[in-house]
Write a structure and sequence with these properties.
The structure holds two protein chains of two kinds. Chain A is mainly alpha-helical. Chain A contains twelve helices and no strands. Helix content of chain B is 72%, strand content 0%. Classes of the chains: A mainly alpha, B mainly alpha. Chains A and B meet through helix 5, helix 6, helix 10, helix 11 and helix 12 of A and helix 1, helix 6, helix 7, helix 8 and helix 10 of B.
């Protein structure tokens, strides 16, 4: 049986990225958003947090020379809100994904490396968490705690680690069987040393690649929570712009500018991340593309022995 | 024998998951800052006696569980006194009798409220899923058949975009477009007063209100089904029996229908069940946008009203349904593909 060895170094990943146009398109889309978020105060024509005086004419004013994308329910500039909104999406996406990937990585490596009872307990816990629907639980958690940016990041982070744990575990299982681990053990290396020096560096690229998809899920979840009215009330975010525009008469006053732009922003970032994620996935796991047992992220059909191999 | 062992272990793990969800569901609402005792009686105009009366009425005067606040090792015996007369065991006992508590907001049993809205959610999810499954399988099959052509790339592009769309935003856009240009109704289940109609007029009215929410759900689900159908079919195309069928001189239509479609059913059946959690998340958003009176809208409203028993009950209901669907999927998978063995 042939063994497919997933690339384990950052260098080989970059080499394989060369001809992958999907991944590059994703990187470009993501970079534009990051630039927008970082230089928001310089790019945005107005400051969304400044105090302003508005008259009735400024509310849901259509696009004009002063307000390129019109104004929202409070008479604020939609374009400026849009530019600042990129910040919240990216902050929540990156930090929540970081929490998820750290938890998933810890659980996956421990389960894969130690095996036995530890693996059984950890993976069963993962299975249970995988089954519990994320959004209702996130809604409940954020509603019970106060809806601040930190709480939203924390809630999304602690709910999104399950797929990472699965992936990392199977990668750990295949790395663990390599000869250098046996050699390291033979010269007397302890578990901690083997994990730190031999397992972790080889699992890390996969974790980074997986985090791309975790970030996109986190951004979608944040925008959904904000839209449902559970966003941080002190921050301008795309989900919240949609919540305000939708619940405060944006549809009946025909203010398409306030309803379309924030959504396009979310689609842009998530699509960019999806492109990048799919590009990376092709590199790491060609099996995912075509194997009749790999029907989805949630399927548990593969035994320990089969993890990481390719059916002939 | 091995087969039964597999089935039994699956059922056992599912029950364990349900118990876990039940305990989680109870303690989440007790441990987190916005506890029900404070939320239920938050009105400052209530007198102390009235607040106490409300606490007694909802059973919030009893300890959450004995020694919940702190455990004193010297007086450990006191934790064992009357352990069943605590909120947790009363809650568990009520659950076993099918009692999900009383809503703080409407003062009606949560069970009844969930029952009413669940029907509407099932209608929405049912129609949406049916369209998505049918179109997803057909388009996925065509995309695989025409792999690496313009049709295939268009399909793939659509899938990725559909996956990236926030469900609620697609709902808003369709609501905007549908109400402006098509004159479709966008709020609720029927036109005001339309609930009094019977027979065909009622049916047509509800159907009209269903069009946009169903369309939204279908588009959201379609992408994933299409992608999976496409990759499954591609893989089946490379099997030897397809070559044999071709060599026999079978028409392409029959190869697709009898050989590819049949074998592709297997992963599709399971992914549909496994996707239920995702579908529910979509339904919550769609119902909030279109005010469709389903479970999702109840959750959305319960959040705003801090109606904890309702939230708790809905979450438990959804989690248990999803766990059952997953169990069903796994059992079905082992039935459809006997090669699948226990881990």
């Amino acid at each position: 049986m042939d063994y497919y060895v997933p690339p384990t170094g950052f260098k080989s990943v970059l080499l394989k990225l060369r001809g992958n146009w999907l991944a590059w398109a994703g990187i470009v889309m993501l970079l534009t958003t990051v630039i927008l978020a970082v230089f928001a105060p310089r790019i945005a024509p107005y400051d969304p947090y400044a105090d302003i005086k508005v008259s009735i004419m400024d509310i849901y004013a259509p696009p004009s020379a002063q307000h390129l994308l019109g104004t929202d329910d409070a008479g604020r500039d939609v374009l400026s809100n849009f530019i600042y909104g990129a910040r919240v999406s990216l902050i929540v996406g990156f930090f929540a994904a970081f929490i998820s990937v750290v938890i998933g990585g810890l659980i996956g490596i421990s389960a894969g490396f130690f095996g036995g009872k530890i693996e059984l307990i950890l993976m069963r816990f993962t299975d249970i968490m995988l089954v519990i629907p994320d959004l209702p639980l996130a809604v409940v958690l954020v509603a019970l705690t106060s809806p601040s940016l930190g709480n939203i990041i924390f809630v999304i982070g602690i709910l999104g680690w399950t797929t990472t744990a699965r992936l990392v575990r199977s990668q750990t299982l295949s790395v663990k069987e390599r000869k250098f681990v046996l050699r390291a053990r033979a010269i007397g290396s302890g578990n901690a040393h083997i994990i730190r020096r031999h397992i972790f560096p080889l699992v890390l690229p996969l974790m980074v690649a997986n985090s791309v998809l975790v970030i996109s899920l986190a951004i979608l979840e944040e925008s959904t929570l904000s839209f449902l009215g559970l966003g941080d009330p002190t921050m301008v975010s795309w989900g919240q712009m949609l919540n305000y525009a939708f619940t405060r008469g944006g549809v009946s006053s025909g203010a398409w500018w306030a309803l379309v732009m924030p959504g396009l922003g979310i689609v842009w970032v998530v699509l960019g991340l999806t492109f990048l994620g799919h590009g990376l996935e092709q590199i790491f796991n060609p099996r995912l593309e075509a194997h009749h047992l790999s029907v989805g992220k949630n399927m548990v059909v593969r035994g320990k022995e089969g993890a990481g191999d390719v059916q002939p | 024998m091995k087969r039964y062992k597999y089935l039994i272990s699956k059922v056992l793990w599912a029950s364990l998951s349900i118990v876990f969800v039940m305990i989680l569901n109870f303690f989440l609402f007790r441990v987190l800052p916005g506890d029900p005792a404070r939320a239920g009686v938050k009105d400052p105009r209530l007198t102390a006696e009235a607040q106490d009366a409300i606490r007694v009425r909802f059973g919030l005067d009893k300890p959450v569980i004995n020694c919940f606040e702190s455990i004193n090792p010297l007086k450990f015996g006191s934790c064992l006194v009357n352990p069943l007369d605590t909120q947790f065991f009363i809650y568990a006992g009520n659950l076993l009798q099918g009692d999900l508590g009383t809503s703080y907001h409407t003062n009606r049993p949560v069970k009844d409220m969930i029952g009413e809205s669940l029907v509407n959610t099932i209608i929405l999810i049912g129609f949406g899923q049916m369209i998505a499954i049918f179109l997803g399988m057909a388009l996925g099959l065509i995309a695989a058949w025409k792999a690496n052509t313009a049709i295939d790339f268009a399909t793939l592009g659509f899938c990725l975009v559909a996956w990236s769309l926030p469900t609620f935003w697609l709902g808003i856009v369709l609501l905007f477009a549908g109400s402006t240009w098509l004159g479709l109704p966008v709020v609720g289940k029927f036109t005001p007063g339309g609930g009094l109609a019977t027979g065909l007029p009622l049916f047509l009215d509800v159907g009209k209100h269903l069009i946009l929410p169903t369309l939204t759900l279908s588009v959201i689900m379609l992408g994933e089904y299409m992608l999976i159908m496409r990759s499954t079919s591609l893989e089946i195309f490379s099997e030897d029996y397809i070559l044999t069928a071709k060599a026999k001189g079978l028409k392409t239509f029959y190869i697709l229908k009898d050989h590819v479609l049949r074998n592709a059913m297997l992963p599709m059946v399971t992914i549909i069940a496994l996707n239920l959690g995702f579908t529910v998340a979509g339904a919550i958003q769609i119902e909030s946008v279109f005010s469709w009176p389903g479970l999702g809208l109840s959750i959305f409203e319960a959040v705003g009203r801090r109606d904890y028993p309702m939230l708790q009950g809905s979450f438990l209901m959804i989690a248990i349904t999803v766990i059952f669907a997953n169990l069903l999927a796994e059992l079905m998978y082992s039935y459809l593909d006997p090669r699948v063995q226990a881990i």
